[in-house]
Amino acid sequence: MSWVVLDYNSKKIYMSETNKLNKEKSLYLRQHADNPVFWYPWGQDAFDDAKKMNKPIMLSIGYSACHWCHVMAHESFEDSETASVLNSGFINIKVDREERPDIDKIYQMSQSIITGKNGGWPLTIFMDHNKFPFFGGTYFPKEDKYGMLSFKKILNRVLDFYSNNKEEIKNQNVSVLEVFNKLQDRESRGDAIDKNTINQLKTQLDSIVDTINGGFGSAPKFPHFPSLSFSIDNCTSDLDRKKIKFTLDRMCMSGINDPVDGGFFRYSVDDLWMIPHFEKMLYDNGPMMSVLCDGYNKFNDSFYLKKAYEIFNWVSNSMTSDLGGFYSTIDADSEGEEGKFYVFSEDELKNNFNETEQNLINHYFTDSGKKNFEGSYHLHVYRKKEVDFKKNIDNFESILKKLSNLRKDKIMPGIDTKVLLSWNCLYIKGLIKLYKVSKDKNVLDVINRAFTFIFESMITDKEIYSCFNEEACFPGYLDDYALLLSSLIDYLTIEWSNKHYEVSKRICENLINDFEDIEKGGYFFTSNNHEKLFYRPKSISDDSVPSGLVYATDGLLQMGYISGEQKFIESAHKSVNYIRKSFGDNMTSNVSAINLLHEDNLDREIIIVRCDESSWKKIIKEKIYQRKFMIYIQKDVKDLPDAIESKKNIGDFSAYICKGMTCQKPITNLQDFIDSKYV
Prior knowledge:
alpha+beta; Glutaredoxin; Glycosyltransferase; 4 domains; five-stranded mixed sheet; four-stranded mixed sheet; 28 helices; 48% helix
């Protein structure tokens, strides 16, 4: 394969045997290293070349597990005619959105502002050498279809527009930047996030809940974990309980759950939760584990705990590095086909199962034996059989084992083995909840191993890194700091660790010094030392992961009350004021803000318990520490920080109930504590 090289003086194209992506560590970028398109990685070289040659930039953003990214690659980026147009007319840049979420955020927003359409991946952006976008879209087909022009027609129109409308592009750039600034500076409300706000959010969620199939909204149907967590926490009536439990049941027995190997797919393409988008993402399965544990704790339904363990086993078996970190994604495609690894042919089911087993598969896992995915079977439990299925689930273990063995003979989808800090922390948070409800030492061992990896491989004295891919790379984003802080604080609720406490304090200092918006409050997505782009994102809205700004605020509040550091609390309260002013009437996109920062949480109740292990086991048995923010300090722990040491150990048992910075007189009798109104 040969590659194009640009000559600045003659503007001619020559051939070379090297490629700008072939030395990148990103799996997604390497997937494009043999395209006939002359790709650049994101960097100054690309922008300098665009300026020298007076060419627009075509920026393509995606990730390795993205099905439609693969489709566009096969149709257009591997096509020599399309590549010729791209190479002659554009400077072409490839970005892995998992490595550079900062770039993805601003250009997703740009595309929506310019076109008025939702974004997604692959994201296709046309921009000038100053990094300002003037047009964009997502997937473009090779030929005219789906009501869209072909990619080549789009390219030619963009070239014509760029050549003949330079002044219009400049004016549009100014307009786009103005919209960005207005979005960041909006002050739509100033009232407290209180019980009335909670009720308003419940009303909005009720208005979009799917009472027929479960979940929120229509196809494509995403789990939306903040809404699920909120609904579980706030289901006070029997009707509310039935609604959220119905959703959990539907998800656990639907097409987005993999009943064979465990884990949940990204989303469902239909209202019925039948056919998923087959990629599996770590950032979905960590929050899903948390939701399942919350459901188990709320409804005492062991089926949810079983499904949480299926996630645990899948990640442990397929998505864990030798060092203890967790991989990011597993592809939707294998052998060039979406879902091929996950679905089963008619012959596979007939030739490998006896008649009794076939009847069970047809009855429970198919709609009366009907094929449902491109002439094959995507197996999942059908709604009319759900109740019976839950009662008899143990009878299917041998069938599920056989199905798993059948998959072992197939070519497995590609796994993106980079370790992303924020996604790992989301999964660790799920593991901590699993440990709380299971008391399983194996789970605790996995948690401790993961933290050891993070401490040794992704944190230095000067830096926290966002990604580990053979080595640590990319400076940490707000989500990395905020979710690491949150997971470390969660850890302190199951086992005291001076190291975890000290790292938590350091992160709080980083958030204030490097991310805080000193003028308006809140925290930017990138640090003061990060690469400067034309816009610096700052958002309270939940995205594919919950808002890092909200988690940073919450973490600073908690650490302020634990450590006694007033500056942590002051920074957090300043951020709370920003959040109050920033979320609009559409509350469903800001669930994390409402869930974490309503009035009952601002002066956070923290319970410090100092006792021996036997007393702590009695507290665990009562499930008290699952309901409350409670830190357990073993009696023999030494060298405690002053803020914790000041809560003196009195006799065999001491429990300090603190609201904000004020602590009550300690309860020194275990049974009195268990019986108290505080727990």
